[in-house]
Amino acid sequence: MDAQTAHIGVRPRYLVIMGVSGTGKTTIASGLATRLGWRFQEGDALHPPANVEKMSAGQPLTDTDRAPWLALCHEWLRAQVEAEQGAVLTCSALKRAYREQLAGEGLPIEFVHIDTSADALAERLKRREGHFMPASLLPSQLATLEVPGDDEPVIRVSGEKHPDLVLEELIRHFQAED
Ligand SMILES: Nc1ncnc2c1ncn2[C@@H]1O[C@H](COP(=O)(O)OP(=O)(O)O)[C@@H](O)[C@H]1O
Ligand SMILES: O=C(O)[C@H](O)[C@@H](O)[C@H](O)[C@H](O)COP(=O)(O)O
Questions:
Q1: DSSP letter (8 states) at residue 18
Q2: By CB distance 3.0 to 4.6 Å, which of 2, 3, 22, 133 could disulfide with 124?
Q3: Domains of the chain: residue spans and CATH
Q4: Structure ipTM
Q5: Which residues neighbour 175 within 8 Å (Cβ) at sequence distance 6 or greater?
Q6: For 141-173, what is each residue's pLDDT tens digit?
Q7: Contact in structure between 22 and 124 (CB atoms under 8 Å)
Q8: Nearest CA to 92 among 126, 142, 53, 56?
Q9: Best of 27, 44, 66, 128 to mutate for ligand 2, by most ligand atoms within 8 A of CB?
């Protein structure tokens, strides 16, 4: 545990910040990593180029498209667990089977599901600049999402509060559990 983490009083965790496009994964994950001194990986950056081309062209990914991406996400998580270094990954992790793949080999992964209304998401994606994901893919993202069940290791937060409030809520949750 480094000085910053010790100060906040949160033990290292291995988090996947999940949810549909535009829900705030990057915003929350990068904020957590900065505040807690943990490693951060943008899951979008692990997509094979063919996946990015497909999404950019407005086509939803299939299970087959996602398989190599999820494998890379899993590898990144495994390396962080081996290093015993707190870590935060963004990954939509839309289906239960994807979450099982991410946490495979018994990794102690926790998912943070950011839930945001379809209307707010559509508005955000329309306004977001410099990202390959078009707003037109939102309906397929929402249709594909399998909301994590109570039997899954998930922390649920609303993505409609200010990001600073979401970060405070999560850090308080971690402090209370440690
Ligand atoms: N809680 C929030 N309230 C309002 N806007 C937000 C919030 N979280 C993120 N945003 C904005 O919404 C857009 C999508 O956020 P982003 O973090 O890129 O989501 P994701 O990584 O899930 O696609 C960005 O323009 C971001 O600034
Ligand atoms: O599984 C998928 O269909 C994609 O991975 C998708 O869920 C993801 O959301 C994109 O990578 C867009 O990136 P943002 O989520 O950052 O908008």
A1: E
A2: 22
A3: 3-177 (3.40.50.300)
A4: 0.95
A5: 8, 9, 10
A6: 999 999 999 999 999 999 999 999 999 999 999
A7: yes
A8: 142
A9: 44
